[in-house]
Input
Amino acid sequence: MVVIGSAQTRQRYVSENQEMPETLINLVQVTKHYRRDTIEIPVLDNIDLEIAPGEFLALMGPSGSGKTTLLNLIAGIDKPNSGRIVIDGKDIAKLGEQQLAKWRARHVGFIFQLYNLIPVLSAFENVELPLLLTKLSKKKRRDHVMTALAVVGLEDRERHYPRQLSGGQEQRVAIARAIVTDPTLLVADEPTGDLDAKSAEEILDLLKRLNEEFHKTIIMVTHDPRAASHAHSVLHLEKGVLSKSGGVYEVPAAHH
Ligand code: ADP
Ligand code: MG
Output
């Protein structure tokens, strides 16, 4: 379940339903602006958002509307100017850089539009990268990498380099890299933006499987309504404000 709206309306919802919805991600009054020289560019304006564990959320909106910014805040890549970002009970906006990096490595898997694989590393080595930050033995690392490659259907490509793979395969290696540490949350920024329709469909099916079978909570930014239709719920970001689209529960305003 996804809930947007102010703290007040959220409270109303909870009391009317007599039960507290389980929440994995809770953004409270999150504001973000960038500064270029003396000009302040407002991006996110007091965002309130609750995302339940196991959600598969698509985030849409025009280019420049702040989708990547919002995703990066939730993933702990960037910090808000104000507000709280509580994930699994922890306000990550309060963490220092080092703690945040540690938190990210444990809890978040990243999937990018252009895959971001390292060209001089094999598929195996690319997927192994996040594990080099852990204390796992070489043997254990191999087990985890091969398991992740098997999930995305590429065990037989472990020795291939990115240039020897198709775009769809590169994205599958990138997804293996994202899941190899078994994170709670997967964030995907236009994961099908650079793929043909067939490869895009395969990637979306894979994300759906990771959600349904492996219970990953997924937030996916996309321009493509077809891609968004694979998600449980769709939110639109425009002019710094989130609004609902089909399937998202929105609390009626308090004055109604
Ligand atoms: P989207 O992903 O929806 O296309 P972004 O989140 O990338 O949008 O960007 C939102 C706005 O913030 C844009 O106006 C962009 O120019 C600005 N912006 C993003 N990152 C930075 C940055 N590091 N410094 C300054 N402005 C930025
Ligand atoms: Mg973007």
In short: Residues 4 and 49 are 5 Å apart (CA to CA). Residues 67-68, 189 surround magnesium ion (ligand 2) (CB under 6 Å).
